[in-house]
Amino acid sequence: MRYVVCYQANARGQEALNLSIALARRQEAELEIVLVLPEESPFGAVYPPAPASLVQQQAERWLAEALAMVPSDVPARAQLRHGESEAEALIAAAEEFDAALLVIGAASHGLFKRFTVGSTASSLLHAAKVPVALVPQGYQNQEAITRMSAGIGSRAGADEVLELALDSAQRRGLPLRLISLLPLDGVQTAARENLQSKLNAALDSRPELNLEPEVVVAQGDSIEQAIDALSWEQPGEILLIGSSRLAPARSLFLGSTAQRILRALPVPMIVLPRGHQSRITP
């Protein structure tokens, strides 16, 4: 199993690398650390342009530094790619390596200093065919992930996310928490019973699973408040969430609820494409 890491020689790239290492340690995955340089173009050049050889050499030094930061127990390779679009180059790398995951850091500013989806991440969330992991600003953890949470809604696709969460938690040997978010005027008991019913049905059909997931219903005046009201096992937790029902099959699309969750979330989020196959769940 391979993860493609969007690397840049800055804090954002380091944070993406940190999460990749933490995830790889639970899956024994290999890292493909990719740094993308823009293709040379007379229309996009900065004058006087730097010699291509110097840019290449500097990029190779950055990649060597990235490899030096990867612990010896995590297999990793680094490569330099060129492309008109960073997102397109990363997607091409993911397809080439049959990657199970794309990992990218957040932009350097945002609500609560946690997440802001930059242009490359936004493009990935609209075009990638594999799960995309978004890393919050300041993420320093490289130790193995300790808990997985999954946001389970009531709309189409929720059962699919539940199945993928069960598969991933089982494969990683992680405790699993299932989260339902409600406005303050929502009926918490009904929401819990609905989610518990879905979980029971899934477990009954999968006797091979050795899991005892926790079911949690969070409430607040807003999605952001509901997220803040939850306890998060930092720095070792991740949140799985499905794509919007508007996404084409086997594609990503971050819906409005997920975007609001992202703005308040203190832990990394993995967005799953619609129709994603559990055999390659990250």
Characterise the protein shown here.
The protein is of the alpha/beta class and 282 residues long. The chain has two domains: 2-135, Rossmann fold; 147-280, 3-Layer(aba) Sandwich (Rossmann fold). It has a ten-stranded mixed β-sheet with strand order 3-2-1-4-5-10-9-6-7-8, with helices on both faces. The chain is elongated and about 65 Å long. It is 36% helix and 22% strand. α3 crosses α4 (119-127).
Structure in a nutshell:
The protein is built from 8 helices and 10 strands. The chain is an alpha/beta fold and 282 residues long.
Shape: elongated
CATH architecture of the largest domain: 3-Layer(aba) Sandwich
Low-confidence residue ranges: 108-113, 245-253
Please give the domain count: 2
- In what range is the share of β-strand residues? 15-25%
Find the count of extended strands (DSSP E, 2+ residues).
10
Mean pLDDT: 82
CATH level 1 class label of the largest domain: Alpha Beta
Structural class: alpha/beta
- Looking at this structure, what is the CATH superfamily of the largest domain? HUPs
Termini separation (Å)? Answer: 8 Å
Helicity range: 25-40%
Could you name the key traits of this structure?
single chain, 282 residues, alpha/beta, Rossmann fold, 10-stranded mixed β-sheet, elongated, Universal stress protein UspA, UspA, Universal_stress_UspA
Topology of this structure?
Elements: E1 2-6, H1 11-27, E2 30-38, H2 52-68, E3 76-83, H3 86-96, E4 101-105, H4 119-127, E5 132-135, E6 147-151, H5 158-172, E7 176-183, H6 188-204, E8 214-220, H7 223-229, E9 237-242, H8 256-264, E10 269-272
Parallel strand pairs: 1-2, 1-4, 2-3, 4-5, 6-7, 6-9, 7-8, 9-10
Antiparallel strand pairs: 5-10
Helix pairs in contact: 3-4, 7-8
